[in-house]
């Protein structure tokens, strides 16, 4: 929170607002420039020392991550931090699955990755997302009640009762990473 000598770009691609909220908190804490992903080109990032990219998760894919993966050669000499936002609990297995799905070995070695929990409000989803989530709900309901863990039960409950896991304190490790 003290003097920030690095020039930091905090880029986000948010579908329902949680990723944008985290990006705003991060940019404010490090006095970085807050940029929407669809407006950013790799040439715009050349004057930055640190690139922080946040994207919501969609079927394990990080929205907007192509800005990093498609332009890694031009960005590899910069500090790169990527965070993904989803509703699933933070587990090592989930984090590894996301990393392996989104990044090559070369990129994995050069970035710092973080997973943050967002919000879920079924009523605010667009039609396609509602249909996908209904399919998931149906699949879950096909399981026997005794086979459902607490996280799965909570997910089912969230269809009727919106949840919001966003927490400004969750960005602390990202801020530490930026300031290294």
Automatic annotation (TrEMBL):
Transmembrane segments: none annotated. SUPFAM superfamilies: Flavoproteins. InterPro entries: Flavodoxin/NO_synth, Flavodoxin_CS, Flavodoxin_dom, Flavoprotein-like_sf, Protoporphyrinogen_IX_DH. GO terms for biological process: heme biosynthetic process. One of its GO terms (molecular function) is FMN binding. Residues 8-160 form the Flavodoxin-like domain. It comes from the Bacteria. This is Flavodoxin. It comes from Orenia metallireducens.
